Amino acid sequence: MDFEKYYYRQIIFIDSLSICAAFAYVRVHVLIYDRGSAFTSKAFSDYCTEEGIQHLQIATGVPRRNGQVERIHRTLIPVLAKLSLDDPTKCYKYVDRLQRILNSTICRNTKWSPFELLICIKMRNKEDVRIKDLLLEEMTEKLQEQREFLRKDVKNIKTVQTKNRKTYNKKRKKAS
């Protein structure tokens, strides 16, 4: 399992040339994307071949292959929405701060932040308490929803098991 997941988010106008320009600052090994027009151009394909980037296309609207990105977006999108309540068109202003906080958040599996795993030093952050609180609140809310969903599933499974046991045991003799 690869725990070194450093998040790099940038809102850009999507065409193949701007994507290639954005990759000049970040070394990408694998790129997973849907079949958007920016990613299907010949120029983009040639760039990926030149740079040794493995590019995998997934079906549009099917997040199974793109699960890690979808998981991060489940946290990012609500936090960005809450931060830009005044003017939703200005959500891009918060992306870099949110990215910095995500990259400095300690992973419970490794006990290190993605930044520390990548750079081997602790990130010095100017604390943005509001964003950190919103991020923590959103992550806690998602965790609670997930656990409540699992509790309901366990309860339903136990109910079905009890009914099945009663039905099965109706025609059986009791042990003597």
TrEMBL record:
<dbReference type="GO" id="GO:0003676">
    <property type="term" value="F:nucleic acid binding"/>
</dbReference>
<dbReference type="InterPro" id="IPR050951">
    <property type="entry name" value="Retrovirus_Pol_polyprotein"/>
</dbReference>
<feature type="domain" description="Integrase catalytic">
    <location>
        <begin position="1"/>
        <end position="122"/>
    </location>
</feature>
<dbReference type="InterPro" id="IPR036397">
    <property type="entry name" value="RNaseH_sf"/>
</dbReference>
<keyword id="KW-1133">Transmembrane helix</keyword>
<keyword id="KW-0472">Membrane</keyword>
<dbReference type="GO" id="GO:0015074">
    <property type="term" value="P:DNA integration"/>
</dbReference>
<keyword id="KW-0812">Transmembrane</keyword>
<protein>
    <recommendedName>
        <fullName>Integrase catalytic domain-containing protein</fullName>
    </recommendedName>
</protein>
<dbReference type="InterPro" id="IPR012337">
    <property type="entry name" value="RNaseH-like_sf"/>
</dbReference>
<feature type="transmembrane region" description="Helical">
    <location>
        <begin position="6"/>
        <end position="26"/>
    </location>
</feature>
<dbReference type="InterPro" id="IPR001584">
    <property type="entry name" value="Integrase_cat-core"/>
</dbReference>
